[in-house]
User: Fold these one by one.
Assistant:
Number 1:
Amino acid sequence: MAEQREKVAVIGSGQIGKSWALLFSSAGFQVCLHDNDSAQLSNVLEDLKGQLMTLTSQGLSRGKLDPEEQLKHVTLTDNLAECVKDAGVIMEAVPEVMEVKKKVFEQVDDVMKDDAILSSSTSSMLPSVLSADLKHRQQFLVMHPVNPPFHVRAVELVPAPWTSGDVMQRSRALMVRLGQAPVVMKKEIEGFVLNRMQFAILGESWRLLKEGVVGVDGINKAVWSGLGPRYAFLGPFQVGHLNGPGIKTYLDKYGPTILRLQSSMGPAGLMGGELAEEVEREMIKEVPLDRLAERRRWREVRIAHLSKLKRDIDLQEKKEIEEGKLEPLP
Amino acid sequence: MAEQREKVAVIGSGQIGKSWALLFSSAGFQVCLHDNDSAQLSNVLEDLKGQLMTLTSQGLSRGKLDPEEQLKHVTLTDNLAECVKDAGVIMEAVPEVMEVKKKVFEQVDDVMKDDAILSSSTSSMLPSVLSADLKHRQQFLVMHPVNPPFHVRAVELVPAPWTSGDVMQRSRALMVRLGQAPVVMKKEIEGFVLNRMQFAILGESWRLLKEGVVGVDGINKAVWSGLGPRYAFLGPFQVGHLNGPGIKTYLDKYGPTILRLQSSMGPAGLMGGELAEEVEREMIKEVPLDRLAERRRWREVRIAHLSKLKRDIDLQEKKEIEEGKLEPLP
């Protein structure tokens, strides 16, 4: 007798929708993938199979099923109500256009199970705005993945003011089960967490560039050859905790300096205009516009290898702990 | 006949001094390592040998020499003048205390070759302050490495207003020859580049924490499982260039949002006090203070593996380009 799999509805068959389908099916869920555009759906299974084969051949796959087996648990449909009505989890991943998303949620609202999780993959829209008029707005949250989600584990979980605590907890557990790293927010804020941090780095970069302190290449290099390698393994408070020693010592020591530096240059001002053109000229010397797609694959390959490296080291560490060679941290 | 090796004087035999000694000797330089404290010097060669053996056994060493052979080119002395007088490059790495550093530079100033590069490893002092009174101040700059320098390639090159262009160019070439990634600054600024960017991330983290948007764990996770993996390979303008598509499109698109977000919360305020204690309580649950040293080794192992991973992928890419399978970027 076939086991009863939990059902997930994924709405939208673009890159993010396909990534969710891969992640959920790898973790043993039954996935229904919906798209309005039947033509778009016709290539989805081939595409997913190709991705899974590549991952498997590189030793980067996550699940225990072989690709053929796994994809038996992905069904496709252009009928939204069919897809959604008995799903315990509904993952919206349609284009980043407010009206398009809102229309989907209205339709889903009428047919979804009362206790289902209803999630948007938006990177920029506030959950309160997306869900204000829904009957099921307590079931609603944003789960924002980072590209490429199969290799970058962070997913931001953003509640609206009315999202139930139970939905947040279940969503968190769900992401852990998929092997993702849930960044659970306590309340919504524009830019969420990741983009705000990214913008903070970009803002400081822009300031340094504008003030003529360092060039485009130097700014990039400071990150990929300096800060990036540590941030691949540790967050800002973890770094401070190690260096302090202890995060309190660190913050007490650098707090006044940081405050002074932040006040010293004033706001970054609007990015864009002539300086942005200058930056683009520099960047095009490195990667011409017609080779960006290729360079994105370059990035994806490296991030995938880093993801595997981290997993391999963690497994090795787990083994050493089990063998009593290493004392686990609390 | 023995080949004539270029001579480097490294002043100070702490972690940074030893790292410089390793890097320069790996690259084929003759290194003279100086410390006032002869007792401290007695263990240096054993320590360097241990580090080199570990690196070699893990396939992480850089040079082509075996450890014994390489260390034949490192000599130790407690005589500063002897060490410095015929060196083409002088790397100061004494404790981060202004008066201690200034005293070293005064002594060096009297005996150094007129065309030698005179460099401080300081992470926080401005080169103009350190070198103002030196006869050889045109030869002076800061070269600030990032821990651990053998695996994190970034080195910030910071000129004083009077540092000669020739010294900056030679210093840059020197770092490239060591296999480091020089971040060449055009003028000095407090915090240099890396720390300013690190402080920008930390400032935003503090703000998000203070506003109750997300907890300590969420902030750390957003970085190590989200932003970090991309920053391990790409700087902020490179990320924007890929996502834009093109950095100008990216900056034009997000510029207004970034400006608005930056203005929306006001300054971060002084870090420290009660909230810092709360952060410390959280962090201690993860890593108790008496296990920080162990956790630093945990970090170092991971960063070393990432460094090797990057090198291996780059070598593979180079091979594919040589075989005509891949078209090089400009």
Number 2:
Amino acid sequence: VAGMAWGANLRDEPIQPIAAAKVTNPAMVELGKKLFFDPRLSRSGFISCNSCHNLSMGGSDNLKTSVGDKWQQGPINSPTVLNSSLALAQFWDGRAADLREQAGGPIANPAEMAFTHDLAVGTLRTIPGYVAEFKSVFGSADISIEKVTQAIAAFEETLVTPNSPFDQWLKGDDKALTKQELAGYKLFRDSGCVACHNGPAAGGTSFQKMGLFEPYQTKNPAKGRAAVTGQDEDRMNFKVPTLRNVELTYPYFHDGEAATLEAAVDIMGRLQLGRKYSQAEIADIVAFLKTLTGDQPTFVMPLLPPSSSATPKPDPWAK
Amino acid sequence: VAGMAWGANLRDEPIQPIAAAKVTNPAMVELGKKLFFDPRLSRSGFISCNSCHNLSMGGSDNLKTSVGDKWQQGPINSPTVLNSSLALAQFWDGRAADLREQAGGPIANPAEMAFTHDLAVGTLRTIPGYVAEFKSVFGSADISIEKVTQAIAAFEETLVTPNSPFDQWLKGDDKALTKQELAGYKLFRDSGCVACHNGPAAGGTSFQKMGLFEPYQTKNPAKGRAAVTGQDEDRMNFKVPTLRNVELTYPYFHDGEAATLEAAVDIMGRLQLGRKYSQAEIADIVAFLKTLTGDQPTFVMPLLPPSSSATPKPDPWAK
Ligand code: HEC
Ligand code: HEC
Ligand code: HEC
Ligand code: HEC
Ligand SMILES: [Ca+2]
Ligand SMILES: [Ca+2]
Ligand SMILES: [Ca+2]
Ligand SMILES: [Mg+2]
């Protein structure tokens, strides 16, 4: 996303506009959309990717932690899938390199969809509509977990949110932001939030310690990046979340404990910058953050191909 | 849905074509669609109408009985919401007169959405986008459960599925059905299935005893119509379900115990008509039943207005 691609009017700022999705393989995207919405990828037949990354609600579930298989309480806040393709890695601790690697995770996670890759793929193979669609997309009717995750990732890559008021301003439209929003952005930028929240996603470019000036108090046992590196100094290092559409992705932080943007900004100021903002300053920054809400993906609800008599019958209450 | 409305070519059969939805108030339908998809109408913030009446899957959940609040096991199979506006009453036992009366039920049902009408309405009142939308749809910003159910019902009225192959045949297109499909229809009609499965929905026009020639064996304790009338002779009387889109609404019967259409047809023949069909006859009838799959509602996924800081924070695990 080089500056020049946007033309000469692009302002030189640490956050860049989001580019609209370039769909090179619409048939694969369509297949991935179906899979994203299909609860048959879960043990229960009840939970789909969209259950926890609800695209009607900014790509997350607006719960502190997610409801998983058997109503299990999830360990960590569900991040939005919007613009997740822009991040340097996936998950709060970055343990998946990219969306393809990521998408296999929840299907087999006992606390999420609680299935196995073999059972999920075996289920899809009994659904004639999927067999035909995999064949037409991949040139072969054989369904594998690699193809499943590739298609889901292709769909997720379309889930970008261009054209926010802030992007319009970045591209030179002085009227796109109100005075308060602009003041909020300048405060955000000049007080140093952009050290971490930068790039087109206003985040997702690095792992950073949560709690630099003061430790972050939480009962959530997540170790952050240390779980991946095994290094104790990486404890409480998390992928800096995107601030795109942050108005929609409440509650905030990996533990979901900040209910409002006001609370999140206050904590960020104190813990990450050692700075206590006034109520008026917080209001300005929040006004700016809301200008990061872009065009949400709008698409027709997918119609899922029906099961056949060979399809295993899901039982949500099976022991 | 009078015959003449379809023109002179309409065949005179006990099942009539489905008419496309006439949308008189698109803004109300749009609001109802949002509410149908909004998990904030549930105690947990996780379950929406679409969880159990998934419009990607024929308007039902394809489970024997539904997963409700706290992963509770539902008492009865979730019927499709597709074409439900055509039925004489709502629910398997007909205890709601119409869609408006019905829509209040699940919100407050402890085994489904487990909320109260007051809490649901109170939640909506804190969401500025809803306040504005109720105001523009109803002329007043005050949100009430009556307006909520009216909007949901208006959306549900659009969920009709016209233009199935069988409807094309009814309207005079001889090529719309294969020989087997037509043979299946004639067997269905002439052996008496249409005594109960008739009208545009191929069902939904009466309550009938399940198990006329032989009792229906089930562990499901549902009393059927007797729960409404208090009359013992109404035990095991259920609203005849629509056969529209029955290909998509597996598993079958009020207890969800028939996994396939073949099984359901075999049971119907024996229990309702005292007739044992051959495998070939069953295959013909099933081929016909699949011609009842019409155009599914296709619409853009709704975008839900975000909560405000005044919105109560849902806790799926609250005691
Ligand atoms: C039961 C809830 C649940 C389900 C179902 C679920 N997810 Fe997630 N998802 C989460 C949570 C929680 C995380 C964060 C986990 C972590 O970081 O350790 C996450 C992380 C992600 C991420 C990484 C985003 C980021 O910014 O790091 C992506 C992408 C994602 N999920 C996509 C999917 C896909 C695709 C599916 C379906 C195949 C899916 N999810 C199913 C809850 C869920
Ligand atoms: C030193 C790095 C760093 C700085 C500086 C920083 N942040 Fe953050 N920000 C993070 C990290 C890491 C997280 C995730 C923390 C967690 O979830 O535990 C985060 C999370 C957030 C969130 C919550 C996002 C979500 O979806 O949960 C908001 C809002 C936010 N930051 C705003 C700001 C603002 C405003 C500033 C300036 C006052 C700021 N940040 C400064 C690293 C930083
Ligand atoms: C937890 C699962 C669940 C949820 C959530 C749910 N329903 Fe239902 N719905 C059912 C079940 C089960 C029945 C059948 C109940 C009965 O007949 O006793 C039903 C029946 C219906 C019917 C009657 C259909 C017919 O043919 O008789 C309609 C219409 C309907 N629901 C609409 C809705 C709406 C609107 C919402 C949201 C406000 C909703 N449902 C939420 C499971 C659910
Ligand atoms: C005397 C009335 C009656 C007759 C005759 C009848 N049905 Fe039914 N049908 C019902 C009732 C009532 C139900 C619901 C039973 C239940 O769920 O327990 C039903 C359910 C069904 C279902 C399952 C629908 C669903 O969504 O669960 C199918 C399929 C079906 N009938 C097909 C047929 C066929 C084929 C015939 C002829 C062989 C037939 N029916 C004859 C009354 C009848
Ligand atoms: Ca620059
Ligand atoms: Ca969040
Ligand atoms: Ca069913
Ligand atoms: Mg045909």
